[in-house]
Write a structure and sequence with these properties.
It is built from two helices and 14 strands, in the order H-E-E-E-E-E-E-E-E-E-E-E-E-E-E-H. With 203 residues, the protein is an alpha+beta fold.
């Protein structure tokens, strides 16, 4: 009996490994937080480019985000969760549901909605649904994939990362205003004219 269980576990592990090996690769993957401070509500901006065409009951995204706490909510394919495909906003009617829970999010498309190969996808989750961890650190998703029928189609390699920290943002570099630029240009022009005038007088 133990041998049968061990064999079943091994077969399942090999099957998962084979699925991961066969899956395409998501590229240009990023996860950006609008507020990276601990224990704070934050918008989440997710971007990636697909490799594989998907047209059968696809999950546009099935992911779990370490370091983020997501409120349990279903049918949030509205202002709380929005998605664009190649720069075009996708209507609510394209989705069966958009769901968040604990650390996860999934966007399920209706049958017949196609994700083409090479598609640029952007997904934004509103801060009303997301809070950062109370612990500072660099985090990555524990799962991040497009899947179809429960099988991974495209996954990133490596996983994207995002930082939760109390460190202040870099200080802005001072820049000259438009009026300051005009005054500086006028001053330089006046200095140049004065220098030329002096040279002519000494000749």
């Amino acid at each position: 009996m133990k041998k049968m269980i061990a064999a079943a576990v091994t077969a399942a592990a090999l099957s998962m490994a084979a699925t991961a090996t066969m899956a395409g690769t998501l590229t240009n993957v990023s996860v950006t937080l609008s507020n990276a401070a601990p224990s704070q509500p934050t918008d989440v901006d997710i971007r990636f480019t697909t490799e594989t065409l998907v047209n059968t009951a696809p999950h546009m995204l099935y992911a779990r985000f370490d370091g983020l706490v997501l409120a349990a909510a279903t049918n949030q394919c509205d202002s709380n969760i929005t998605a664009t495909l190649n720069g075009v906003t996708m209507p609510q009617s394209d989705f069966v549901f958009c769901q968040t829970w604990n650390s996860g999010v999934q966007l399920r498309l209706r049958n017949g909605i196609v994700i083409p190969a090479g598609a640029v996808i952007s997904i934004k989750i509103d801060k009303s649904l997301v809070t950062t961890s109370s612990t500072e650190g660099v985090y990555s998703p524990t799962m991040f994939e497009i899947n179809s029928g429960g099988a991974a189609v495209d996954m990133p390699s490596p996983m994207p990362s995002y930082t939760i920290t109390n460190a202040p943002p870099p200080a802005p570099v001072p820049t000259l205003t438009e009026w300051a630029m005009i005054l500086l240009t006028a001053a330089l022009g006046g200095f140049a004219a004065l220098t030329i005038h002096k040279r002519r007088r000494t000749v």
